[in-house]
Design brief:
Chain B: This is ABC transporter ATP-binding protein. The complex is a heterodimer of chains A (357) and B (275). With 357 residues, chain A is an all-alpha fold. Chain A is 71% helix and 1% strand. In chain B, strands 6-9-10-3-11-12 form a six-stranded mixed β-sheet, with helices on both faces. The radius of gyration of chain B is 20 Å and the shape is globular. Classes of the chains: A mainly alpha (357), B alpha/beta (275). The complex binds adenosine-5'-diphosphate and magnesium ion.
């Protein structure tokens, strides 16, 4: 096609409003460098606890606990981020976290099914529950908040009714347990030895999965269509994105992640407790996701941010107790942090949608 | 830009699209009743009508976004059934929707290639080739003479006019056979409008693209269109060539709300049995 006389819109085109107030500028900065801003918060928190605990916070023993919690929370938070980007949420993840390892342990003790096989079945159960959540949500247009609260009670009811709601002592099978969470670390071990590394296996698994999700989100068509679905679902459909499928797929991913987190938890403590995942786990994971910079409106989110957010929540939970606060006080701080993060998140969202007009 | 003279459409230009007896209701709302339109190769067809006349619904059926309750679509001589916008795009039918269908949270270049992304294999993984898409988007927008601050900026940072230009550019990137534009000039200034109309002219003359254009400005219709279909209350009330109609006449017909078909319908009421 021959060139047509160009339109000069240039850098000063109408509609690109320069931010005026300091607050607006700060919010734009925060929205652009979401992971970096939450990382700064995390570092400040670490310094505060490290000083407050006379150097105890960053000790391998204590970090092993904080990172174990970060791993558990971070995996569920990252799963929640994928869904929140599509504009959905899953409150049943804690129940999947309980039921998957419970089935694995039960099959092991009753039929002698190897843990590795049970683990695969457990993850598949999580994926299946996710698919059911997704299908109910998109086909019957039930808000996912409702679908998944229903699923939460449903699964919770099932898991406590099988086996009289007794915690099962899960058998230990090597190398399964060593690979998936059992800590062999002794204070005498070097941190970079095999035993040292096992102190952090839950966290390392989470890091691995979060990196895979980050790759999927930022570097694949799947990620692009996931963002498109949450950002403008009608527009996405008009251009041929299979928005309903994208939602269902992300529900399946979330269910699989929650199941895997539960299995790691059981491998670590060699016990499967039907009450292992309380709904608070999901709520804390959502808090971690929002603290990490994921929008409540859909269309935008970061799994890496969620992992850092999970670290912040886990640090608050453990660190405050360590520097001498009552366990109950840590909830007050956590509550305040969540509300602050929500307010910030909504301010950033407002800026986003205002620009969109 | 010179857009005054439209070279006449070749008399033997083949029909590339025929939508016949299309009806569509949304619950109690009847959007389209028995609508038929025909489009020939290299033809620019104007679709006019009041708000709510059913124009957008008709083109969303053509784009595969809606499925008609009744009626058929024949494209390039074959009957087609579009289950989704993917199917229509695969047939060379590209649509610029009234709402533009741009994703505010994605960059300009991701929007340009949404649904037909470039990939590259890295370690066996099928990853997005962002660099290629970025370059291609930049080159393409430059060729079209559309200037935006950066192809990296997210679409929600752009002005309404810029976004409209991006949506038009996206629709013609894949060299469609049929281009459907739903009020593509709504947010554009005089110069930008002339620019987009010029693009349409070029596509028509150099690539024999057939265009369905929904516009409200009758001046612009007579500048670029070969034929006009007037949609009224979900029915085609007038089908006339721009050569046989004047702007004044069109305005008179649209204002009266009575086209040829409406008059026929009135006559049919008097002589029952013909319907
Ligand atoms: N998705 C929908 N659901 C319900 N009604 C709709 C929908 N889309 C269009 N309509 C109705 O169909 C009629 C035609 O609308 P539309 O095709 O958008 O008209 P136009 O584009 O000519 O202004 C209107 O009465 C509108 O309210
Ligand atoms: Mg319309």
């Amino acid at each position: 096609m021959p060139p047509i006389e160009p339109l000069k819109a240039g850098k000063n085109a109408v509609g690109v409003k320069a931010p005026h107030t300091m607050t607006e500028r700060l919010l734009i900065l925060l929205s652009r460098y979401r992971e970096a801003s939450i990382a700064v918060v995390a570092i400040v928190l670490v310094i505060y606890f490290q000083v407050g605990s006379d150097g105890g916070f960053l000790s391998p023993q204590f970090m092993s606990v904080v990172l174990r919690d970060t791993g558990r929370l971070g995996l569920i938070a990252a799963a929640e981020v994928m869904l929140m980007i599509t504009g959905e949420i899953d409150l049943s993840l804690s129940a999947i976290f309980s039921i998957a390892p419970y089935v694995m342990a039960l099959m092991s003790v009753t039929w002698g099914v190897p843990l590795a096989v049970g683990a695969v079945i457990g993850v598949l159960i999580g994926v299946l529950v996710g698919a059911i959540n997704g299908i109910i949500t998109v086909r019957f247009r039930v808000p996912s908040l409702i679908t998944t609260v229903g699923m939460l009670f449903f699964l919770q009811g099932i898991v406590v009714s099988i086996y009289n709601s007794q915690p099962i002592v899960a058998p230990v099978e090597q190398p399964f347990n060593a690979i998936f969470g059992q800590s062999l670390y002794q204070p005498s071990d070097a941190l970079l030895s095999w035993h040292g590394v096992t102190a952090f296996t839950p966290f390392l698994w989470t890091v691995l999965i979060v990196l895979a999700l980050a790759l999927a989100l930022n570097r694949t068509t799947f990620g692009l269509h996931t963002i498109a679905t949450g950002s403008n679902i009608i527009g996405a459909r008009e251009i041929g994105v299979r928005a309903d499928r994208m939602k269902i797929y992300n529900f399946m991913i979330a269910g699989g992640c929650a199941a895997f987190a539960g299995i790691i938890n059981t491998a670590q403590f060699t016990s499967a407790d039907p009450q292992a995942g309380s709904p608070f786990l999901t709520l804390q994971a959502i808090a971690a996701a929002v603290i990490g910079g994921t929008s409540l409106l859909g269309g935008s989110g970061t799994v890496i941010g969620a992992l850092i957010g999970a670290f912040v929540v886990a640090s608050l939970n453990n660190g405050l107790v360590m520097i001498g606060a009552q366990a109950t006080v840590s909830d007050i701080y956590l509550g305040a942090a969540i509300i602050a993060a929500m307010i910030l998140s909504i301010q950033v969202d407002r800026l986003r949608t205002r620009r969109r007009l | 830009m010179n857009t005054q003279t439209i070279p006449p459409l070749a008399a033997d230009a083949p029909v590339v699209l025929e939508m016949s007896n299309i009806s569509k209701s949304f619950g109690a709302v009847t959007a389209l009743v028995d609508v038929s339109i025909k489009l020939r190769r290299g033809e620019v067809l104007a679709l006019v009508g009041d708000n709510g006349a059913g124009k957008s619904t008709l083109i969303k059926i053509l784009s595969g976004f809606h499925q008609p309750d009744t009626g058929t679509i024949v494209s390039q001589g074959k009957e087609v059934r579009f289950a989704s916008p993917r199917d229509a795009r695969a047939q060379g039918i590209e649509t610029v929707y009234q709402d533009l269908a741009l994703i505010g949270d994605l960059s300009v270049f991701h929007n340009m290639f949404l649904g037909r992304e470039y990939h590259k294999r890295i370690l066996g993984l099928n990853l997005l080739d962002n660099r290629k898409m970025r370059e291609q988007a930049q080159i393409y927008l430059d060729t079209l003479g559309i200037s935006i601050p950066s192809v990296n900026s997210t679409v929600d940072l752009l002005s309404g006019g810029q976004r409209q230009c991006i949506a038009v550019a996206r629709s013609i990137y894949s060299s469609p056979k049929i281009l459907v534009l739903d009020e593509p000039l709504a947010a554009l200034g005089v110069r930008e409008s002339a620019h987009v109309l010029g693009l349409i002219q070029n596509l028509r003359q150099q690539r024999q693209v057939s265009v369905i254009l929904i516009v409200h400005n009758y001046n612009q219709i007579f500048e670029v269109c070969d034929r006009i279909n007037f949609l009224h209350s979900g029915e085609v009330a007038l089908d006339a060539s721009t050569a046989d109609t004047s702007e004044e006449e069109l305005i008179r017909i649209v204002k009266s709300g009575l086209g040829r078909k409406a008059i026929d319908a009135a006559a049919a009421e008097v002589r029952p049995g013909i319907v």
